[in-house]
Amino acid sequence: MACVRLMTVIAALTCLPGLSLHTLVARQGNTHGSELQFQAGLDAFRSGRYSDAALIFGEIADGDVRGPRSTGALIMAAKAAYRAGDIVAASTRATDLLDRFPSSTYCDDALYVLALCEFRRGHYDIAVSRLTGVISDYPGSPTVDSSRKLFSEIVSSRLPLSELKRLARVRLPSGLHTIASVSLARALSRRDEDSLAVAILDGLLSDPDAARSRTDILALRDEIASGEKIGVGVLLPLMRDQPRSEVGRLASELLDGIRYALEQYNSGARPEKQLRLEVRDSGRDTAIASEVIRSMAGMGWIRAVVGPLFSDVFSAASARANSLRLPIISPTATADHLAENGPYIFQANPDYSTRGRAAARYAVEHLRMSSFAILGSDDPVGRAHAEAFRQEAERLGATVYSTVLFPAAAEDLREQFLKIRRAIMAESTLVRKADILEGSFLQEIAFAGGDTNMILEDSSGSEYVSVTRLFGPTGYSVAESLRLPISIYDTTADETDVPLMALDGIYIPLGDPGQLDYIAPQFKYFNIRAQVIGNNEWYDPDRLRDNRSYISGCLFLSDFFTDESDSATRAMTEDFRRSRGTTPTKFTLYGFDTMNLLLEQIMERIRTRNDLASALARIPVFRGLHGDIVFGGSRVNGYLHVLQYSDGVTRRLGSVQAGPR
Asked: Torsion over CA of 339, 345, 349 and 351, rounded to 10 degrees?
């Protein structure tokens, strides 16, 4: 309603002929000048300049007290101020609208803005009151859906038990009583008052208003009614029908870490508080994994699932788990976009794009680098790393001169290394003006940001123009992407005895550790004098040792690193050896840390699946032995170690977090 009303006005304004602002004001007078001022406010709001928009709309509202634009300007001033972070101004404008224009068609929007302001201030009970007002008094408002979502967020995680009890007793708009009662049942369950929680849920099952939530209520009742029998499902490719399988060995090592963590937990818990595992073998079959998840979701005592191991199987299993509202966390899956599919999906291992962004952030913010080239493997791993690094580096203000991909199975990278050298040493790389006057080249050059006047109006009389002069520092890469006919290459670029000195860093994301064997010597041969930054695939001690004369001093980011001098790591290793007769591996620690992450939440009296998913998403940091786990709102771990290989030794320099996407 309110948004539609405003958009009608916006649509009318956008139909004005293409005259300048000054001309329109001069011809139409002050009334249309006010309209144009309103349009200017809308333009500022749309483009994200919320402070400017708040100022413009505020001037209209203050200067046109009873005019046709007063209410529209007031509500837009409130919304813009809220987006700009000025909670006081937003609240003042929304209150002003309600006081001055109690019959306005924008009152629903004003109430919703006030609810948002109270939410930001931490006044959750007041925010709930505002939201129930919107939902009950304006049932047809476009803000109702947003109000219901915010109401649900507040009552599920922000209100004390006393306020939840009060809400469950009062008369609320349709559907809200169910939300409040379910949240109350969860809160009571966290206090071990299971009988009261089940009684509330049983009452909802006979409430017609809760009919649409019946499935969720039954699932929660089943979880709580399971009492102290709480546990975790484990879904891994144990490959029990293939006892010598390498995949099965890795899965077994991971399971050892999970079991060891649970044994430690249970050894300190009372018998009635001990947790159990439900272990299933998924093989490498997505259909089996999905069916096992369906089965586990029906076991009310299972609060979460650890696994699967590989990204493709995790993708299928997590989609099913999310639809059934069963938290699932993979210790090892690294493919992009998996956790984006729903709030019950977690990746304890950083995905490809996270790794690329983290590398760029460390290089720019910690090493103060500002110029890069990228040489990446042309496979899903290398491409994702390379693109994420490029985007993040450029977002942080650095220049990426060239991004070159090499075939994953290639061993001769002469063409790729020369492309990088030519892209950087491009000052004397020229295109013939006559060649690019033909066809659609001029239009493509203009679209790419090139200065076509250098071609059409240059009075220097030169037959050629430099690609660097035409497009700037990344001119060679732009010219190459447009397939411009290069007439003259910078000859020094192909002379490998001339060192390339202009780069701060070169990011080389491999798709496989084996690629290091031919990347390293060729990097040395093509004489690129820049700091090498690699991805996790560089962390192969044997290959680093074999290629140490070419790449000593290289940096790379890894999700895994253990410090043998760390007391916690040493204690765990020694105790594991005593109890198991073997040394914990990398995958053992993946399982150990992931299980402890879940156990830490359960020890905090997080007992239902919904609460566990919410708690995992909110934890600031979990300190693991192989590395920290930091979800940061994305449900994908953003923490990586920064390692350096030098003088035959790999050292940890520090860590970096990728930050929000």
From this structure: -10
